[in-house]
Specification:
alpha/beta, single chain, transport, 2 domains, AAA+_ATPase, globular, 6-stranded mixed sheet, Probable branched-chain amino acid transport ATP-binding protein LivG, Rossmann fold, ATP binding, 4-stranded antiparallel sheet, 38% helix, 277 residues, ATP hydrolysis activity, binds adenosine-5'-triphosphate
C-alpha cells in the first residue's frame, strides 16, 4: 500500500498512501487541545472500506481523544472528519451514529438492571418499543406489532451470532467483563452500522472470551463491515489488523502493514520502555 519510493522503515503517512478502494472514514489535520495540552496535533489518516484497521500508540499518544473527536464526544479545534463523503466534524454522537458510524458504549447503569434481551431490544435507532405503547389507532398497532416481531427476530439472530443465548435472560449488571463486551458489540450491531469503532474492546476480557470477540470481529469483517480498533496493546493489533496507524504525541508517526510498522525505528523508539515490540 505504501508509495514505491517510500522506505519501509519510514512508513507512509496517509497523504502518501495509495488507497485502492472506498475510504469511508477520513481524518484530516485533526487538532484538539485541552488548555495548554495538545492532545491531537495535526493527525491525518484514512480507513479503507471492509478493513480491520488498528490505531495504536503509547500512553497519552492521543488515541482516545482522536476516537472521541471522530465519534462526536469532543469537538476538534481544527481539522475535519469525513464519513462516506460527508463532513461530520463537530456533529453530536447520536447524529454520527445515525450516519452509520457507530462506537461501542459501556452498558449504562440504568441498563444494568435490564436483561441482555431487553438491552438489545432497546439498542436500535428509531426504536419502536416506545411507539408500541403510544400507538392507539388499530392500523398503527398492527404495523408496530409487526415491527416488534421483526425486531425480536433480529435480537435473537444477534444473540445467536454472539453466542450469548445462554445469558439472554440474565441482567446485564451480572455479566462478566468479557460478556459485557460481547453485549456492547451486539448492541452496536443492532443499530445496523456501516462502520464500527471499538475502543480497547479486549480490555479486562479473559482469554476465552477474547478469542470469541476476535472471531466475531473477523466474521463481521468478512461480511463487509469496516472496523477501527483503538488499542494500547500492540500485539492484539499486530495479530489481527491488516493496516495499522501509530500515533505518538498527538500525531501519526507511522502507518502500514503490521510487519512494516513493527520494524519501524520510530515506532520502536516511541514504544521503548513501554511495551515489548
Ligand atoms: N479531558 C482532558 N483534559 C485534559 N487533558 C486531556 C484530556 N483528555 C486527554 N488529555 C491529555 O491529552 C493527551 C492525550 O490523551 P489521550 O487519552 O487521547 O491519549 P491515549 O493515547 O488514548 O492514551 P492512553 O493509551 O493512556 O489511554 C494526554 O496528555 C492526556 O493527558
Amino acid at each position: 500500500m505504501s508509495d514505491a519510493t517510500t522506505e519501509p522503515a519510514e512508513a507512509a503517512p496517509e497523504s502518501e498512501r495509495s488507497l485502492s478502494g472506498d475510504v469511508p472514514l477520513r481524518v484530516e489535520n485533526l487538532r484538539k487541545t485541552f488548555g495548554g495540552i495538545v492532545a491531537v496535533d495535526d493527525a491525518s489518516f484514512a480507513v479503507e472500506a471492509g478493513s480491520l484497521t488498528g490505531l495504536i500508540g503509547p500512553n497519552g499518544a492521543g488515541k482516545s481523544t482522536t476516537f472521541n473527536c471522530i465519534t462526536g464526544a469532543h469537538t476538534p479545534d481544527s481539522g475535519t472528519v469525513t464519513f462516506q463523503g460527508e463532513d461530520i466534524t463537530g456533529r453530536r454522537p447520536d447524529q454520527i451514529a445515525t450516519e452509520g458510524l457507530v462506537r461501542t458504549f459501556q452498558i449504562a447503569r440504568e441498563l444494568e438492571e435490564m436483561t441482555v434481551l431487553e438491552n438489545l431490544m432497546l439498542a436500535p435507532q428509531g426504536q419502536i418499543g416506545e411507539q408500541l405503547w403510544r400507538s392507539v389507532t388499530p392500523g398503527a398497532r398492527v404495523e408496530v406489532i409487526e415491527q416488534e416481531r421483526e425486531l425480536r427476530e433480529r435480537v435473537w439472530e444477534t444473540v445467536d451470532f454472539f453466542e450469548i443465548d445462554h445469558i439472554a435472560h440474565d441482567e446485564a449488571g451480572t455479566l462478566s467483563g468479557g460478556q459485557r463486551k460481547l453485549l456492547e458489540m451486539a448492541r452496536a450491531m443492532m443499530t445496523e452500522p456501516d462502520m464500527l469503532l471499538l475502543d480497547e474492546p479486549l480490555a479486562g476480557v479473559n482469554p476465552t472470551l477474547e478469542e470469541k470477540l476476535l472471531e466475531r470481529i473477523h466474521d463481521l469483517r468478512e461480511q463487509g463491515y469496516t472496523f477501527l480498533l483503538v488499542e494500547h496493546d500492540m500485539d492484539v493489533i499486530m495479530e489481527n489488523c491488516e493496516h495499522v496507524i501509530v500515533m505518538h504525541q498527538g500525531s501519526v508517526l507511522a502507518e502500514g502493514e503490521p510487519s512494516m510498522v513493527k520494524n519501524n525505528d520510530r515506532v520502536i523508539e516511541a514504544y521503548l520502555g513501554e511495551i515489548d515490540v
